[in-house]
């Protein structure tokens, strides 16, 4: 029989009509009809978004709705569709589900096809004997996710294992943060969250395609094949890439074959900042007819991770094509609590948030998902390296069945699916679980039971070595790459710095000399318009009922307050609370990164926690749940720029530290001034400097500039001829003498074609000037923030997507430190 395959999508976009109804659980009385009257559903989709679209529930993100809708996660749900099918002569019919969330029973025409319990896997059911000519009835029933997690956890030997959530997310292979996290809503959902289709085929089928492109131009394509029961013809498998092709003939029953192409003079793929991102189309054709093909793109690159001990401990140093990469990155969480609402456009917008801030790596954190194809495609195209966690976070995991088999199957599928991506630079075993085991009092409750070590140190590295040998594996984050060294030891490998934020002032970042910081961060509220779109407490208060629904961190408000230290005065109203905490967040993280970059080359990078949010919330994110860039984002753009100049404390006084993370020499003249916070220039020095490509240097601040007799009234400004600046203060803002806004600056508004401009002219020191146009119109966006001006300087904010306001701009739209201290 000749090889041929047809795929009929069964999703809503392809015209299938789906419904959902409740089967068990605490459905509120006013919705009890959901047990008998099915409601329209969308596939791929989730039950929350279905109920929302049907007008049956209010927005789960609004007010205190999260708690009011908790019943959804304790309810069983049944999805149903019918579809027509006519025998087409092909031999095998299969129902293919790319993702079911999570505990599902799949029934076709009354016959149970199977039960699944892993959101992170695709499944394939042979329905050849079950399909009928004409109308077919497909039902996918989901057990309540919260109850299922509880049951699985209770059933495991010894009961519940340690974790960091009220729900035992570690007992079920479902996105951990879907059960709520310290930045995310508890909206445990169900649904057919990935495409579903009927595949009919004869002869042979491509079961898996894994093209691995190496930096020397070699493409090794691993092809797994499935054969229909009566297949007796040999088949050809052909791979084309660039101008090359490779072909193999395979006998019936052959399970896998490897084809090799060598692309002469290959154009290698580079992360952004190091070169271009050429991508090559790969086509895999099975059989002469070309009816069973695979297409995808690859990038030729070599990635290496250097962990070998050195005189300081051991580095965590990533190289691409032999060049060391200084990592300026961020941690990525699922970009919406309801991930099926995401699409290529939303992914691109959020990845551009990283790029526009100067980042070159994103870490897909282990409490989320293996991301969508769009995510990795965009990272390939734009040169953003991807660090991919396996999906284990902040908990102990059973290594026995039923979890073990699920973990292995899921990891094999994920590595197979993602290995071809040029951007994929690191596979990482888990988030904080090794640290958790040694330090978070897990061992007593575990009482000798497994906790996941065998996954991180044995199973997962073996799977990566087998299926994606071109990509480095790291056992965990943080990890010291030795069993006898504390996993969060700053001298070895990766570290997470969380005492800043949780316990100590952000100045403590300077106590660390970390080789690589894969997590650190500080909270701040989302944009005012984002916050007030969901928090309606009257009056607005950090401790308001709805506000606390949108502040998930343990003692979050306390930490926001304590975090002010003596950096900024304590607020006296909600507007000042909002501005001070956003500003303090930005300063804290920038302070850390300035210090880490000052440690280059001992330090090889940092990844801020976290780039994005999955709803409107007070969190560590740089960009809020409505896509508005918080002041932190603008601070990141400055400290993650190719060229960074900062003033840091040195052994004998302040030192100007310069890090040039670009391929060009940085030659500039430094103008160093000690100034009064009013208008006087008290000392000026100049020096010409050159910083090598991908190099760093430092200059001691001359004592005439560095020494002040009036610490509350003076500061240091360092300017480069190419527009970079750094400031050094002798006093914190709580004692610094800043003039009030009406004396310190004037601001003028001018309408433009796309919005308006606000030009600020400084008559004295103006610290951290920020414009919040969303206060006037939530759609408005501004191009800059946290601008410090000396007397005589000016700055123009450009606002887009808005109409120029009438009248002058003032607090709370235009803010600075000057208004906080006066
Ligand atoms: C880190 C992360 C997350 C968490 C964040 C903030 O540990 O891995 O678990 O959201 O801290 O607490």
TrEMBL record:
Its EC number is 3.2.1.25. GO terms for molecular function: hydrolase activity. It catalyses: Hydrolysis of terminal, non-reducing beta-D-mannose residues in beta-D-mannosides. It is an enzyme of class 3 (hydrolase). Gene3D superfamilies: Galactose-binding domain-like, Glycosidases, Immunoglobulins. InterPro entries: Beta-gal/glucu_dom_sf, Beta-mannosidase-like_N2, Beta-mannosidase_GH2, Galactose-bd-like_sf, GH, Ig-like_fold, Ig-like_GH2. Residues 38-194 form the Beta-mannosidase-like galactose-binding domain. The keyword Lipid biosynthesis does not apply. Residues 217-301 form the Glycoside hydrolase family 2 immunoglobulin-like beta-sandwich domain. Keywords: Glycosidase, Hydrolase. Belongs to the glycosyl hydrolase 2 family. This is beta-mannosidase. The lineage of its organism: Bacteria, Bacillati, Actinomycetota, Actinomycetes, Propionibacteriales.
